[in-house]
Amino acid sequence: EAGVAQSPRYKIIEKRQSVAFWCNPISGHATLYWYQQILGQGPKLLIQFQNNGVVDDSQLPKDRFSAERLKGVDSTLKIQPAKLEDSAVYLCASSGRITSYEQYFGPGTRLTVT
Amino acid sequence: TQLLKQSPQFLSIQEGENLTVYCNSSSVFSSLQWYRQEPGEGPVLLVTVVTGGEVKKLKRLTFQFGDARKDSSLHITAAQPGDTGLYLCAGLIDSSYKLIFGSGTRLLVRP
Questions:
Q1: Which chain A residues are within 8 Å of B41, Cβ to Cβ?
Q2: Secondary structure of chain B: what % helix, strand, coil (to 5)?
Protein backbone atom coordinates (compact mmCIF):
# COMPACT_ATOMS: atom_id res chain seq x y z
CA GLU A 1 0.00 0.00 0.00
CA ALA A 2 1.48 3.36 -1.03
CA GLY A 3 1.91 5.88 1.74
CA VAL A 4 1.07 9.56 1.90
CA ALA A 5 2.91 11.45 -0.84
CA GLN A 6 4.02 15.05 -0.53
CA SER A 7 5.84 17.43 -2.86
CA PRO A 8 8.08 19.23 -3.02
CA ARG A 9 10.32 17.86 -0.26
CA TYR A 10 12.21 21.12 0.12
CA LYS A 11 11.45 24.71 -0.80
CA ILE A 12 13.37 27.93 -0.24
CA ILE A 13 11.63 31.24 -0.92
CA GLU A 14 12.04 34.87 0.02
CA LYS A 15 9.62 36.58 2.37
CA ARG A 16 6.51 37.97 0.71
CA GLN A 17 6.66 35.31 -2.03
CA SER A 18 3.98 32.65 -2.36
CA VAL A 19 4.37 28.87 -2.16
CA ALA A 20 2.17 25.80 -2.57
CA PHE A 21 2.48 22.29 -1.20
CA TRP A 22 0.77 19.21 -2.52
CA CYS A 23 -0.42 16.08 -0.73
CA ASN A 24 -1.83 12.80 -2.01
CA PRO A 25 -3.25 10.72 0.86
CA ILE A 26 -3.45 6.96 1.10
CA SER A 27 -6.03 5.66 -1.36
CA GLY A 28 -9.48 5.53 0.16
CA HIS A 29 -8.66 7.70 3.18
CA ALA A 30 -11.45 10.20 3.67
CA THR A 31 -9.78 12.36 6.34
CA LEU A 32 -6.79 14.55 5.51
CA TYR A 33 -4.78 16.77 7.84
CA TRP A 34 -2.17 19.48 7.34
CA TYR A 35 0.26 20.13 10.20
CA GLN A 36 2.98 22.72 10.75
CA GLN A 37 6.06 21.55 12.65
CA ILE A 38 8.45 24.28 13.68
CA LEU A 39 11.97 23.15 14.57
CA GLY A 40 12.08 21.83 18.12
CA GLN A 41 8.32 21.56 18.45
CA GLY A 42 5.65 18.96 17.88
CA PRO A 43 3.29 19.17 14.90
CA LYS A 44 0.44 21.68 15.14
CA LEU A 45 -2.78 21.03 13.25
CA LEU A 46 -3.57 23.68 10.63
CA ILE A 47 -6.60 22.18 8.92
CA GLN A 48 -8.59 18.95 8.81
CA PHE A 49 -10.70 17.79 5.86
CA GLN A 50 -13.37 15.10 5.77
CA ASN A 51 -13.68 14.26 2.07
CA ASN A 52 -13.77 17.73 0.47
CA GLY A 53 -15.27 19.52 3.46
CA VAL A 54 -13.39 21.39 6.19
CA VAL A 55 -13.85 19.90 9.69
CA ASP A 56 -11.46 22.18 11.60
CA ASP A 57 -9.43 25.16 10.44
CA SER A 58 -9.36 27.04 13.73
CA GLN A 59 -5.55 27.29 13.80
CA LEU A 60 -5.07 28.18 10.14
CA PRO A 61 -3.83 31.79 9.69
CA LYS A 62 -6.47 32.58 7.13
CA ASP A 63 -5.02 35.95 6.16
CA ARG A 64 -2.12 34.18 4.44
CA PHE A 65 -2.79 30.42 4.44
CA SER A 66 -5.36 28.61 2.33
CA ALA A 67 -6.03 24.95 1.63
CA GLU A 68 -8.33 23.02 -0.62
CA ARG A 69 -9.31 19.45 -1.34
CA LEU A 70 -11.60 19.92 -4.29
CA LYS A 71 -12.30 16.32 -5.29
CA GLY A 72 -11.90 14.80 -1.86
CA VAL A 73 -8.60 13.16 -2.76
CA ASP A 74 -5.41 15.20 -3.02
CA SER A 75 -4.95 18.55 -1.35
CA THR A 76 -3.00 21.77 -1.76
CA LEU A 77 -1.81 24.12 0.99
CA LYS A 78 -0.83 27.63 -0.04
CA ILE A 79 0.96 30.46 1.75
CA GLN A 80 0.70 33.96 0.32
CA PRO A 81 2.62 36.05 1.25
CA ALA A 82 5.16 34.08 3.26
CA LYS A 83 6.77 35.41 6.43
CA LEU A 84 10.04 34.40 8.07
CA GLU A 85 8.13 32.68 10.88
CA ASP A 86 6.50 30.32 8.35
CA SER A 87 9.80 28.43 8.09
CA ALA A 88 8.86 24.92 9.18
CA VAL A 89 8.12 21.41 8.00
CA TYR A 90 4.60 21.04 6.63
CA LEU A 91 3.24 17.55 7.21
CA CYS A 92 0.25 15.96 5.57
CA ALA A 93 -1.51 13.01 7.20
CA SER A 94 -4.53 10.90 6.37
CA SER A 95 -6.76 8.43 8.17
CA GLY A 96 -9.35 5.96 7.01
CA ARG A 97 -12.21 7.25 9.09
CA ILE A 98 -12.85 10.41 11.03
CA THR A 99 -13.14 8.19 14.07
CA SER A 100 -9.83 6.48 13.42
CA TYR A 101 -7.16 6.68 16.08
CA GLU A 102 -4.38 6.21 13.56
CA GLN A 103 -3.05 8.91 11.28
CA TYR A 104 -0.49 8.12 8.58
CA PHE A 105 2.00 10.90 7.88
CA GLY A 106 3.83 11.85 4.74
CA PRO A 107 7.54 12.80 4.76
CA GLY A 108 6.78 16.51 4.89
CA THR A 109 7.90 19.58 2.98
CA ARG A 110 10.67 21.61 4.60
CA LEU A 111 10.07 25.32 3.90
CA THR A 112 12.75 27.93 4.47
CA VAL A 113 11.74 31.58 4.15
CA THR A 114 14.68 34.00 3.83
CA THR B 1 -5.88 25.24 25.95
CA GLN B 2 -4.85 21.62 26.23
CA LEU B 3 -1.09 21.26 26.43
CA LEU B 4 1.11 18.22 26.55
CA LYS B 5 4.51 18.67 28.17
CA GLN B 6 7.23 16.16 27.48
CA SER B 7 10.37 15.63 29.51
CA PRO B 8 13.20 15.53 29.09
CA GLN B 9 13.54 17.57 25.91
CA PHE B 10 16.87 15.96 25.04
CA LEU B 11 18.44 12.70 26.11
CA SER B 12 21.82 11.32 25.12
CA ILE B 13 22.64 7.87 26.45
CA GLN B 14 24.99 4.97 25.83
CA GLU B 15 23.82 1.84 24.07
CA GLY B 16 22.44 -0.67 26.55
CA GLU B 17 21.13 1.89 29.05
CA ASN B 18 17.49 2.20 30.07
CA LEU B 19 15.47 5.41 29.83
CA THR B 20 12.04 6.83 30.53
CA VAL B 21 10.28 9.68 28.73
CA TYR B 22 7.32 11.45 30.30
CA CYS B 23 4.26 13.13 28.84
CA ASN B 24 2.10 15.22 31.18
CA SER B 25 -1.04 17.32 30.89
CA SER B 26 -3.56 18.99 33.13
CA SER B 27 -6.27 17.80 30.76
CA VAL B 28 -7.89 14.41 30.40
CA PHE B 29 -7.58 12.73 27.03
CA SER B 30 -9.73 9.91 25.69
CA SER B 31 -6.59 8.24 24.40
CA LEU B 32 -2.93 8.95 23.98
CA GLN B 33 -0.55 8.00 21.23
CA TRP B 34 3.22 7.76 20.97
CA TYR B 35 5.03 8.44 17.69
CA ARG B 36 8.66 8.25 16.62
CA GLN B 37 9.95 10.66 13.99
CA GLU B 38 13.27 10.29 12.21
CA PRO B 39 15.02 13.16 10.39
CA GLY B 40 13.38 13.97 7.07
CA GLU B 41 10.40 11.75 7.75
CA GLY B 42 6.93 12.10 9.16
CA PRO B 43 5.95 10.70 12.57
CA VAL B 44 5.19 6.97 12.71
CA LEU B 45 2.66 5.67 15.22
CA LEU B 46 4.11 3.30 17.83
CA VAL B 47 1.14 2.70 20.11
CA THR B 48 -2.26 3.96 21.23
CA VAL B 49 -3.31 3.65 24.89
CA VAL B 50 -6.95 4.09 25.74
CA THR B 51 -7.73 2.88 29.24
CA GLY B 52 -6.45 4.56 32.42
CA GLY B 53 -3.63 2.44 33.88
CA GLU B 54 -3.14 0.57 30.62
CA VAL B 55 0.32 -0.83 29.91
CA LYS B 56 1.41 -1.88 26.43
CA LYS B 57 4.68 -3.44 25.37
CA LEU B 58 6.33 -3.26 21.97
CA LYS B 59 9.54 -5.33 22.11
CA ARG B 60 11.87 -3.25 24.35
CA LEU B 61 9.42 -0.35 24.62
CA THR B 62 6.85 -0.17 27.45
CA PHE B 63 4.08 2.41 27.36
CA GLN B 64 1.84 3.33 30.28
CA PHE B 65 -1.25 5.52 30.46
CA GLY B 66 -1.85 7.20 33.81
CA ASP B 67 -4.85 6.18 35.89
CA ALA B 68 -6.42 9.62 35.43
CA ARG B 69 -5.63 9.64 31.68
CA LYS B 70 -3.65 12.86 32.02
CA ASP B 71 -0.14 11.49 31.69
CA SER B 72 1.86 8.75 30.04
CA SER B 73 5.35 7.33 30.02
CA LEU B 74 7.55 5.50 27.58
CA HIS B 75 10.28 3.25 28.94
CA ILE B 76 12.98 1.80 26.71
CA THR B 77 15.05 -1.11 27.97
CA ALA B 78 18.58 -1.68 26.70
CA ALA B 79 18.47 1.17 24.20
CA GLN B 80 20.04 0.66 20.80
CA PRO B 81 21.32 3.20 18.23
CA GLY B 82 18.28 2.36 16.09
CA ASP B 83 16.09 3.87 18.81
CA THR B 84 17.53 7.30 18.04
CA GLY B 85 14.85 9.77 17.01
CA LEU B 86 12.23 12.27 18.13
CA TYR B 87 9.57 10.73 20.37
CA LEU B 88 6.22 12.53 20.35
CA CYS B 89 3.19 11.95 22.51
CA ALA B 90 -0.20 13.06 21.23
CA GLY B 91 -3.52 13.27 23.02
CA LEU B 92 -6.77 12.65 21.20
CA ILE B 93 -9.67 15.03 21.72
CA ASP B 94 -12.78 12.88 21.38
CA SER B 95 -15.19 15.57 20.27
CA SER B 96 -13.18 16.52 17.20
CA TYR B 97 -10.83 13.56 16.70
CA LYS B 98 -8.05 16.11 16.77
CA LEU B 99 -4.56 15.22 18.00
CA ILE B 100 -2.65 17.56 20.29
CA PHE B 101 1.07 16.87 20.10
CA GLY B 102 3.67 17.35 22.78
CA SER B 103 6.91 19.16 22.00
CA GLY B 104 8.86 15.92 21.76
CA THR B 105 11.87 14.24 23.33
CA ARG B 106 14.93 13.99 21.15
CA LEU B 107 16.80 10.76 21.94
CA LEU B 108 20.35 9.96 20.87
CA VAL B 109 21.71 6.50 21.61
CA ARG B 110 25.48 6.39 21.23
CA PRO B 111 27.09 3.10 20.14
A1: 107-108
A2: 5, 55, 40
